[in-house]
Specification:
Thrombin, subunit H, alpha+beta, 3 domains, Pdz3 Domain, 16% helix, globular
């Protein structure tokens, strides 16, 4: 029995020593000041932090726009006090909510290789210059002969005027750049020099404007990134535009067959596109015919299951608000933070639920902007994923 008590005392002593050591280490290494965007302290793992409930309740009101500073009690394992830290919390952002159908025109950085091919050369033999140069589908070609590739024509001209001599090409693959030597071959069919490359330098489509930050002049749309259909890779943008668009037709969604909004692009440019990310496309606002209504932006922690509204344009008239239900929150992925179900019979009769082209449609709950539609469920078009507005806002800087 005495041996058991001795073991227990040793274990307790070790636990106390580790706990005190951890507290001392945390007090010395963790900063005394933090910055937060939603009132939570960005400390994870064995350290937890709490702030006075009264301060947090006052801070969570919709009317706050200014920055505040709160004090938190930092603890180890939520038991051992470590120290008191101060947290500067950003004021709530107010955004002009979108919902308008917009045209999206992207110009890629360099050109994207969407395929390669072998062909019959002038001597009757099979030639595959792209494979010989180790150029692959999904590569982004950045320069040729040391000149930035601005379009397909830049690359085609360099190949056709090569005379069959090696031309240096800089490409990007997996985030890394690589120098290769492409040796064009003359084809038997046309007598022109070819590199055996299929490339793309731009893409055009329609989507939905999510929000505009009138103060900073930034805009956001789609809620998800634009991927190349052939390579399934996220397109890296050199520049682009967001323009006005009108609904041409709507194909209703059905189980196994997602619906789609077809639109006609207008002449008025609303802004530029400067970046294409997993969370959507973002850029600078140039012009708006009518400034949308401004709403406070909810933090991720304020979004909850229950009734909400989605704003979108699915007819040739103006944008409308339709009833939806947020049925799940925090699904984990960057652009799949919520599961949303369309409950409004008006929208169901028009589209069958969520359709392509609605991506970016803003979602309101409790008088706040909480997120935007991103994807439809193929087997249940009434439902789809949505991204937190907070995650999109972070991409605007």
């Amino acid at each position: 029995m005495r041996k058991i008590w001795k073991i227990i005392c040793v274990v307790c002593a070790l636990v106390c020593a580790v706990g005190l050591g951890g507290a001392v280490w945390g007090a010395r290494t963790l900063p005394d000041r933090f910055y937060s965007v939603d009132g939570s302290l960005p400390v994870n793992g064995i350290f937890t932090a709490t702030a006075p409930a009264a301060a947090l309740n006052a801070f969570s009101g919709n009317d706050r726009a200014e920055e505040r500073e709160l004090e938190y009690e930092l603890k180890l394992l939520d038991v051992i006090p470590v120290k008191t830290v101060s947290v500067r919390v950003a004021g709530r952002k107010y955004l002009a909510v979108g919902g308008e159908l917009v045209g999206i025109k992207l110009k890629t950085k360099g050109v994207l290789v969407v395929g390669t091919e072998a062909f019959t050369a002038e001597d009757g033999k099979k030639a595959d210059p792209a494979a010989d140069a180790d150029i692959r589908k999904g590569d982004v070609l950045l320069t040729v002969n040391g000149i930035p590739i601005a379009s397909n024509e830049t690359l085609t001209s360099a190949i056709e005027h090569s005379g069959g001599e090696p031309i240096p090409v800089t490409l990007q693959r997996g985030g890394k750049t690589k120098e290769v030597s492409l040796i064009p071959k003359k084809t038997s069919a046309t007598g022109l020099y070819k590199g055996g490359l299929w490339v793309r330098d731009s893409t055009v489509g329609v989507g939905t404007l999510s929000f505009c930050d009138i103060e900073s002049g930034k805009l956001a749309a789609l809620g998800h990134g634009i991927y190349d259909t052939d390579t399934a890779s996220l397109l890296e943008v050199s520049n682009g535009d967001i323009c006005t668009a009108t609904v041409s037709s709507v194909k209703k969604g059905a189980v196994g067959a997602p619906g789609e909004i077809t639109g006609t692009l207008g002449e008025n440019t609303l802004g530029s596109i400067t970046v294409n990310t997993e969370e959507g496309v973002f850029g600078d606002l140039y012009y708006m015919e009518n400034v949308p209504e401004v709403y406070p932006t909810a933090t991720a922690g304020e979004v909850h299951t229950g009734e909400a509204q989605v704003i979108c344009t699915v007819t040739q008239g103006e944008k409308q608000a339709y009833a939806v239900e947020i049925v799940k929150v925090n699904t984990g992925d960057d652009d799949r933070n919520m599961v949303v179900k369309v409950t409004d019979e008006r929208l169901l009769s028009l589209t069958g639920g969520i359709v392509q082209g609605m991506s970016g449609s803003p979602i309101l709950q409790d008088g706040m902007l909480v997120g935007a539609i991103t994807h439809v469920f193929v087997n249940d078009p009434k439902c789809g994923y949505a991204i937190f507005a907070q995650n999109m806002l972070a991409q605007t800087g």
